[in-house]
Amino acid sequence: MKKRVHNFSAGPAILPEEVLNEIKDEFSGYQDIGSTIIEISHRDKTFLEIAKNAESSVRRLLDLDDDYEVLFMQGGATLQFSLIPLNFASKNARASYAEIGSWSSKAVKEASKICNLEICHSSKETGFNEIKDLSGWEISSNSKFVHYCKNETIQGIRIPYDPSFQVPAFVDMSSCLFSEDIDAKRYDFIYACAQKNFGPSGITLIIARKALLKKCDQDLPNILRYDMHAQENSLLNTPNTFAWYVAGKMFDWYEKNGGVKEMEKRSIEKSQILYDLIDSGEFYQNPVLKSQRSVNNVVFTIRDSNLEQLFLDEAKKQDLFYLKGHRSVGGMRASIYNSMKKESVVALRDFMQDFEKQYG
Ligand SMILES: Cc1ncc(COP(=O)(O)O)c(C=O)c1O
Known about the structure:
The chain is α/β, with parallel strands linked by helices. Helix content is 35%, strand content 16%. It folds into 2 domains: 18-256, Aspartate Aminotransferase, domain 2 (3-Layer(aba) Sandwich), CATH 3.40.640; 259-359, Aspartate Aminotransferase, domain 1 (Alpha-Beta Complex), CATH 3.90.1150. It has 10 helices and 14 strands. A 7-stranded mixed sheet has the order 2-10-9-8-5-3-4, sandwiched between helices. Strands 11-12-14 form a 3-stranded antiparallel sheet, covered by helices on one side. The two termini are 38 Å apart. The model has no long low-confidence stretch (mean pLDDT 97). Pyridoxal-5'-phosphate is lined by residues 11, 76-78, 103, 149, 153, 172, 174-175, 193. Catalyzes the reversible conversion of 3-phosphohydroxypyruvate to phosphoserine and of 3-hydroxy-2-oxo-4-phosphonooxybutanoate to phosphohydroxythreonine.
């Protein structure tokens, strides 16, 4: 493998070298089938085996029982937050949405075109830096579901506990699934795009209560209906077979490395290294309520914002890449998903310390 940089990309993001090497080896020919994995049918038994194993791993990793359907779909997380109201709150039914960062706000915008939307909590006025406890969200009893994002990738804020609403909980976990130890039974519908924690872009994992899927709008074209995807075992049309295969490898890697509990422990430890430095003085700043800070996306600014470009340029010279904050908010962001080694986080911390010494 060629030299690799410390890759803090928010997504598509870093993958473990072991996984990349395995893929590289298998790309000269998968097992003894005489082809690579991207050259065979999604209905071939070799691929069906890969798909089955990926699902079984997800079930073990998240301790899912038979009440849940596990789906692999295309279209990214954006398609999911567009399909959710279409399937479950069409014909102007009521649905509750929390607006707690950029991604949940995008979901609000799409859903408002489809359902009778109520905002059950908004932290927009406070710059998305603090989220009200879920128990205080105002949700109508006739709401079909409540939707929120567990980890807002752009603002670096998360809800660090599981919900207990009277209505079904639909949650975007794109940037935290497999990094936070959740009790899956407390959720009714989870979705996450792959390109942060389990592979290349082009595949999205959905975990949905089977009973809920019976309520999908039957008037939609089949390709937009979750129940049809479930009925066809996520093979309603040709899936992204390569991304599915890589996702399976990532799930195996999680299982070999201690599972979700271990990933959560590592994520807390890695993020704390950066938060400790940020909080140690006035030079770096993070505006998020401490108890809600993301363990995957650490955002920060420099007191003198004129130094930001210099910071990014100097960081690059130390092989610390992709630290620029999202274009909508600016500042810096270090995304430290499960594949990110602690050494890389320490290298960033050391660089930040040196930069502060020189320019602080
Ligand atoms: C929390 C969250 N939700 C949704 C998305 C959108 O995902 P996609 O680009 O796969 O549609 C992202 C992408 O960064 C995200 O971080």
